[in-house]
Amino acid sequence: MGREEFVFLLMGLKWTVALSAVAFVCGSIAGLVVALARTCGIAAVERIMAAYIAVFQGTPLLMQLFVVYYGLALVGIKMDAWAAVSLGLTLHASAYLGEIWRGAIEAVPKGQTEAAKALSLGYVSRMKDVLLPQALRISLPATIGFLVQLIKGTSLASIVGFTELTRAGNIISNQIFQPLTVFSVVGALYFLMCCPLTIYGAHLERRFAATSRS
Amino acid sequence: MNYTMDFTPVIDGLPNLLAACLGTFTLAICGMLLATVIGIGGVVLRQSPIKFLRWLVIGFVELIRNTPFLVQIFFIYFALPLAGIRLDPTPTAIIALGINGGAYAIEIIRGGVQSIPKGQMEAGLALGLHKAQVFRLIILKPALRAIYPSLTSQFVLLTLSTSIASAISAYELTSVSQRIESESFRSFEVYFTVTAFYLVISWVMMRIFALFSSRYFSYPVK
């Protein structure tokens, strides 16, 4: 594998990073809405959100990408692969992050909500100033764990036809007939992205376990 | 834009799709079994007194957990023939699923073993039981109970990731649906239906796992 091929892989890597970032940021915003709706106290809304989460957690990401990709074309929205895949991954992330953060919001001791109510804080202030900051801390290891899942999940965009790192690897491997070398390099690039996050997540988890024990 | 849904190709392909569900189940179950074997073997090696073996397992787990399954399956697909092993896509996919699931299983099982207080082992030995007896009579069930929820949810994830095996055209639901789609161009109808199939498959799996759990792991201890 020459220098040119490696540069082509790096171009793919750029799109993998962009896709992960867009899906994580947009997914976080949507996920926050999901988590808040899931804990809002209105039974009907909570049940709809639970179903939304269950659908995304009970089907393969690949199928979700297919359905979004072809579903958008169906309702007449012309989108290129990049936009469709971003949207698919965003929806996927919103369900998973929503579920992680719901758990975190519910893990905050009930006294916090009661104290906030006793201080006559409104819903917005109660969430923004009391519950969410604590929930965020609790959820951080799981959130980082999901970010790693998401980065790995962007590889499925290659099956839908979006040229990111894995598809770049496929193209190069078909050109130079050295699949093992190419996919080793591709795997190494993913590893370099994910491993620091995994280590950081594990570090946070240990620190969190240590502080909650003392 | 007006589009009329046409599910005829899906209905015509229904026997094929249902047969493919069995293919997905086969991949999933064989993958789970292999993952369990690798998981247990990995934990044993992980506890070994030889430092090199311990590091080997740690390296394996981190390597698998930090790279996409799609890249792993491509790698294995191309690597096996070079190692002189010629297999069809489906067994190759099972091996890939087992290796991937195995890495996660190692971490989960290790957590379960560590969750048993050391005193239980010591107490068992003090009562004159053999090591194997202590393991079978005292440690096994609480350890299984501790790892059961995370292990089974990992298995559901493994079942869902069988769809990625379509990339090497293993026989399962996604690859069959792709064939129907490419013949009929009814992409949305096909994939929407198949997504619903997956939802049923994962729901059934969760029900079965929950049933096992309430049968064998419920308190009071049976």
From TrEMBL, chain A:
It is found in: Cell inner membrane; Cell membrane. It is a multi-pass membrane protein. Keywords: Cell membrane, Membrane, Transmembrane, Transmembrane helix, Transport. GO terms for biological process: amino acid transport. It holds the Pfam family BPD_transp_1. One of its GO terms (cellular component) is ATP-binding cassette (ABC) transporter complex. The chain crosses the membrane at residues 15-37, 49-75, 135-160, 180-204. GO terms for molecular function: transmembrane transporter activity. The keyword Transmembrane applies. It comes from the Bacteria. The keyword Lipoprotein does not apply. Its main location: membrane. Residues 13-201 form the ABC transmembrane type-1 domain. Belongs to the binding-protein-dependent transport system permease family. HisMQ subfamily. This is Amino acid ABC transporter permease. It comes from Aliirhizobium smilacinae.
UniProtKB/TrEMBL annotation, chain B:
Its main location: membrane. Keywords: Amino-acid transport, Cell membrane, Membrane, Transmembrane, Transmembrane helix, Transport. One of its GO terms (biological process) is amino acid transport. GO terms for cellular component: ATP-binding cassette (ABC) transporter complex. It is found in: Cell inner membrane; Cell membrane. It is a multi-pass membrane protein. One of its GO terms (molecular function) is transmembrane transporter activity. InterPro entries: AA_ABC_transptr_permease_3TM (IPR010065), ArtM/GltK/GlnP/TcyL/YhdX-like (IPR043429), MetI-like (IPR000515), MetI-like_sf (IPR035906). The chain crosses the membrane at residues 17-45, 52-80, 92-113, 190-212. Pfam families: BPD_transp_1. Residues 21-209 form the ABC transmembrane type-1 domain. Part of the ABC transporter complex GltIJKL involved in glutamate and aspartate uptake. Probably responsible for the translocation of the substrate across the membrane. Belongs to the binding-protein-dependent transport system permease family. HisMQ subfamily. The complex is composed of two ATP-binding proteins (GltL), two transmembrane proteins (GltJ and GltK) and a solute-binding protein (GltI). This is Glutamate/aspartate import permease protein GltK.
